[in-house]
Every structure is written in C-alpha cells, then in structure tokens.
Design a protein that fits this description.
Layout (H helix, E strand, L loop, with lengths): L2 H9 L5 E4 L4 H10 L6 H12 L3 H4 L1 E6 L1 H4 L9 H7 L3 E5 L4 E4 L2 E7 L5 H11 L3 E8 L8 H20 L3 E8 L7 H21 L8 E2 L16 H15 L6 E4 L6 H14 L5 E6 L1 H13 L4 H19 L10
Parallel strand pairs: 1-2, 1-10, 2-3, 3-6, 6-7, 7-8, 8-9, 9-10
Antiparallel strand pairs: 4-5
Helix pairs in contact: 8-9, 9-10, 10-11, 11-12, 11-13, 12-13
C-alpha cells in the first residue's frame, strides 16, 4: 500500500468525511455578512477554530480543506491551525486553485486557474502540514454546454494539478463539479457528468497519476434547480451510483460527494441512499461546505462567543453525515 493510498483511506475511514472550510476571503465575507457578523480575519478564524476544535472532529471528520489565509493562522492557544486539526484526529488539507475564470474560446464557461507557480506553493503547503489538496473544475449544463473545450481543458488542468500534488507527497482531491444551476433534466446531468468524469480519468492516466492515491469529489446526479423534471431521492441514488460504476476506475479508493447547493437534510438523505445501495469497492463519503456549516454558522452568529452551543450544532450535522456515509441515517435522528 502506497503512502498516498494510506492517507486517502485514513481520511475516509469508518464513515468519516471531509469538512470543506476552504471558502475564499470573498466568499467567507459574504457568508458572514449574510448573518450580520463583520468579516475580519479574527472572526473568520474564530468560527473556523470553533468547528475545528469540536468533538466530532475525531469521530466524523477525516480531513479539513483549508484556505491559504487559514493554514497560516494560529489558534487561540497559539498553535498553527494544521497542528490543531491533527491533534483533533483529522488531517489538514488545502485548496490550491486560484478560482474559475472565463474560458477563452467559450465565454459562457469557466476554466480553473492556478497552475502557474503551483509546484512551489505545494512545497510551502506541505511544510505547513498539508496532507492533501483540492482543485475544483466547474461545468455548466445547457443545450450547448459543457462544450468539448470546457470538458477537455478542465480535465487537463485537474490532471496536471494532480500529478504535481502527488510529486509533493500529498493526495489530490479531484473535483469536477457539474453545476445544478439550470433547467436540465437528471438524464442530462447523468450524461454530462459521465462524460466529464471519463475525460478526467483519461487525462489523469495520461499524466501518470496514481489513481489509488486520489479522492474523487463529484456532484450527485440531480435535475437542475430550475427543472420541472424532478426525480425522487431513490432515483438520485440509483443514477449517481450507475454513473460512478460506468465512469470511475476501480483503483480509486474513495468518492466524497460535494453537496452542490442541496440543503443540509437533502444532501444527507441522498448520501445515505447512495451508501445503502453501494455495491462497489469505492468508499462512499462526503466533502461538504455549507451542508455541514450552515446551521452552525446561523447559531454562532447570534453570539459568536457561544463556542459550546455552536459546536453542538456542528457535531450533530457531522454525525448525521457520517451515519449517512455508512447507510445508517434516518430522518428520525434529526433534531
């Protein structure tokens, strides 16, 4: 077993998932302003440290994706944030892309940037304690999208990123997100997501990436948020698993779904149903941002010094998702 495979399996062991706390300063500012909390470096750190020191970290959270600002900050006990995460029994990771920009040649689509200087940044992040990394590609669905150009360009970037990350002894999270924005059907989502994932693995293999040392972070198969063609949660689970079985090489150790705009309960329920019918060797888990943090953030915003109360809310949400990753969740367990 390779070191990278060992790290990937440790992140996802025993139903553990990934806390995506890698919101950029701009995104985090919007989240805090939405709940009437000033977005200062101290407040951003306070909320994140509140989550990182919660008891569920050791039981439910195998990895935390950090942002550049956070990985360099110190906790209230003057420890570096990666050290705090490690002491709680989780592994620190880092978002390394620099965001999605307009794709030249297809101005309605995006290409994720950040390859320039990445090798040097990875060396720095490794020294700071990062064990894994994240890079997100985004794809629109419509009659004409995602285009071949978008699918190829983002797959190529994800593969180059992954090869550089493994060269620096970290596990790359490969995140090709087919967005749920739009009027498309679940069938459209299934077809486009399958095409996107297959192209990603073509490029990963071409770039000699060790597939046993990655984690795939895909979207679930959902109808667009403006679609009249909604499907049941059971159908979401069946189509999602079918897509994975058709598109993902068996060497990949684990799949940690993104929530992609689903509500907290919806993302937990769908994860639970996928886990229940999982007849593959893939470990099925979660890598959620808002779907893990939103309730905790709303509670925290009423009194940012109420650490214990905020952690209680976060602990519950993390526990629900870890049960779902094992197919053991039910609505009766929700508060």
């Amino acid at each position: 077993m390779s070191e990278l495979n060992t790290i990937a399996l440790k992140i996802l062991e025993k139903g553990k998932g990934i806390l995506a706390a890698d919101e950029s300063t701009g995104t985090m500012t919007k989240r805090l302003e939405d709940v009437n909390v000033p977005s200062t470096p101290d407040n951003r750190l306070l909320f994140r440290e509140t989550l990182f020191s919660a008891s569920c970290m050791s039981e439910c959270i195998g990895g935390v994706i950090l942002y550049d600002e956070t990985i360099k900050q110190e906790s209230s006990k003057k420890d570096k944030i990666p050290k705090l995460i490690l002491e709680m029994g989780s592994l620190p990771g880092i978002k390394v892309d620099t965001g999605a920009k307009i794709l030249a040649g297809s101005t309605n689509e995006k290409i994720t940037e950040g390859l320039d200087g990445l090798r040097e940044r990875l060396k720095e992040y490794y020294k700071l304690g990062a064990k894994f990394t994240k890079w997100r590609g985004v794809y629109n669905i419509s009659e004409n999208y995602p285009s071949k150009l978008s699918i190829q360009s983002n797959a190529h970037a994800l593969a180059r990123y992954s090869a550089l990350v493994q060269e620096n002894n970290m596990v790359p999270i490969v995140e090709p997100e087919v967005l749920m924005d739009g009027e498309h059907s679940a069938k459209d989502c299934f077809e486009k997501t399958s095409e996107v994932i297959k192209k990603c693995f073509e490029e990963l293999i071409l770039h000699k990436v060790d597939l046993k040392g990655i984690i795939l972070k895909p979207n679930m198969i959902l109808a667009g948020n403006k679609s009249k063609d909604k499907i049941s949660n059971k159908e979401v689970a069946e189509l999602t698993l079918k897509c994975l079985k058709n598109s993902v090489p068996t060497e990949v150790p684990g799949i940690a779904f993104l929530s992609g705009g689903q509500s907290e309960i919806e993302s937990t329920e769908n994860l639970n149903l996928i886990s229940k019918i999982n007849d593959t060797n893939f470990i099925i888990s979660y890598s959620y941002g808002r779907a893990l943090q939103q309730s905790a953030l709303k509670f925290w915003s009423k009194d940012i010094r109420n650490i214990e109360g905020t952690q209680k809310v976060f602990n519950h949400r993390a526990k629900m998702n870890t049960l779902a990753a094992q197919g053991n969740w039910s609505k009766d367990l929700e508060i």
